[in-house]
């Protein structure tokens, strides 16, 4: 029988445990604080930021809501980041991507104080992750790793195929699953748009993680029996009745083969949101030299 891994339930459990840690911090007079920076009038970006703020409020993380005119020069954003970097009350800074054309995303990431980089994208944090000494794991791959652990999926010795090599999902996840630690020790293959015969790779994998941004790219015919399938993709597709969200996996046909599978929505998405809270709480500890040994 196929297990559908319930990301909402796992994320809810994680949020409950984070709330306990935030209560502990309160006894020391500390309120973790996340600053969100929005330099866009894209409705989707506005929605993402307000969701992140309400997630914070739910668990007791304070927020700073900074909005910058999308037509402003890049220096306006950099000055804002300098102010947030030097503000002792701010633990984490999240710049909603993408930024407007006059601002290079890579420059934004480098401008952040790495201790406040709760997305885990700063080169210093990427380097620590690759070396096996992560400070902040990027939220989506961290969510995937946590889901696998929670579902009792053994990664040690497993053949894992990741479809997608982006800096925010595929590459960091590959590094995390390679590490000589619990939740790692996998043999990892990373596929991408130039991969010859994707199905040959996915079809021999114990674990397939689809993060390509292509609706229903991976279907049951491309999977080994009893594999574990994690669907990171979120794609809006038009239907006769309007539009709907689908993943990078054809859920029905994949479910016939998979031993466990994540749905879209309700799989990886809620975990990404929860891991931002986790990193913010971790930042509040690290910045004050308080011990944080996970949850
Ligand atoms: N659930 C969440 O919380 C969450 C978080 C982040 C992203 N996402 C979703 O995850 C998906 C991926 O996001 P992303 O930011 O990583 O995307 P991205 O930056 O566009 O990267 C997509 C990757 O998939 C590869 N790819 C594209 N088409 C392919 C194909 N036909 N066969 C094999 N590989 C292919 C690309 O290869 P090349 O490198 O060769 O171009 C690229 O490496 C999107 O649907 C996004 O919305 C979800």
From TrEMBL:
GO CC list: cytosol
Keywords tagged on the record: Amino-acid biosynthesis, Histidine biosynthesis, Hydrolase, Methionine biosynthesis, Multifunctional enzyme, NADP, One-carbon metabolism, Oxidoreductase, Purine biosynthesis
UniProt-listed Enzyme Commission number(s): 1.5.1.5, 3.5.4.9
Residues annotated for NADP(+) binding in this entry: 164-166, 234
GO BP annotation list: L-histidine biosynthetic process; methionine biosynthetic process; purine nucleotide biosynthetic process; tetrahydrofolate interconversion
Cross-referenced Pfam families: THF_DHG_CYH, THF_DHG_CYH_C
Superkingdom to which the source organism belongs: Archaea
Pathway: One-carbon metabolism; tetrahydrofolate interconversion
Segments forming domain Tetrahydrofolate dehydrogenase/cyclohydrolase catalytic: 5-119
Catalytic activity as recorded in UniProt: (6R)-5,10-methylene-5,6,7,8-tetrahydrofolate + NADP(+) = (6R)-5,10-methenyltetrahydrofolate + NADPH; (6R)-5,10-methenyltetrahydrofolate + H2O = (6R)-10-formyltetrahydrofolate + H(+)
GO molecular-function terms, A-Z: methenyltetrahydrofolate cyclohydrolase activity; methylenetetrahydrofolate dehydrogenase (NADP+) activity
Ranges where the Tetrahydrofolate dehydrogenase/cyclohydrolase NAD(P)-binding domain occurs: 138-285
Complex formation: Homodimer.
PANTHER family assigned to the protein according to its UniProt record, in alphabetical order: C-1-TETRAHYDROFOLATE SYNTHASE, CYTOPLASMIC, C-1-TETRAHYDROFOLATE SYNTHASE, CYTOPLASMIC-RELATED
Role noted for this protein: Catalyzes the oxidation of 5,10-methylenetetrahydrofolate to 5,10-methenyltetrahydrofolate and then the hydrolysis of 5,10-methenyltetrahydrofolate to 10-formyltetrahydrofolate.
Family: Belongs to the tetrahydrofolate dehydrogenase/cyclohydrolase family.
Name of the protein this chain belongs to: Bifunctional protein FolD
Organism: Halococcoides cellulosivorans
